[in-house]
Amino acid sequence: MKTIIFIVLASIGLAFSLSGAVGILRMPDLYSRIQCSSKTVTMGALPALVALVVGEGIDSSYASRALLVAVLLLVVNPAASHALARAAYKSGVPMWQGAVRDEVVERKEQQKAKERARRPDDGGGEG
């Protein structure tokens, strides 16, 4: 039974890692690739780490290390992916032309339109 659980978990990790690697190669822009890489790291590594714990036993020296790495991956990976995507966006890396929308640009345009509406017109009358 232990071997079957090990094989299933390792296969799940391998499948997610493979799909993420294909996604990294096939995605059109940096932002989509960041999403694929974070999925690969999280959903590919976590089942593999749990498989290691199951295969070696919960009382082995590998178990505590594997669980520590799993917790760190769950905490650090989303933050790192967000920081990378934000830095890319702020440095002007363009989004894919087929992207649905850029909400940040839309909000900035709405704010500019509101500011223009609030400003009194300089009708060119008295100066």
Q: How do you describe this structure in short?
A:
This protein has helices at 2-26, 30-56, 61-90, 103-118. With 127 residues, it is mostly helical. The model has no long low-confidence stretch (mean pLDDT 87).
Could you state the oligomeric state of the chains shown? single chain
Question: Main β-sheet: number of strands, strand sense, barrel status?
Answer: none
Tally of helical runs: 4
Low-confidence stretches: none
Give the strand tally. 0
Q: What does the overall shape look like?
A: elongated
Q: How would you describe the overall organization of this protein?
A:
Helix 1 packs antiparallel against helix 2 (30-56) and helix 2 (30-56) packs antiparallel against helix 3. This protein has 4 helices and no strands. The N and C termini lie far apart (88 Å). The chain is mainly α and 127 residues long.
Layout of helices and strands:
Elements: H1 2-26, H2 30-56, H3 61-90, H4 103-118
Quick tags:
mainly alpha, 0% strand, 127 residues
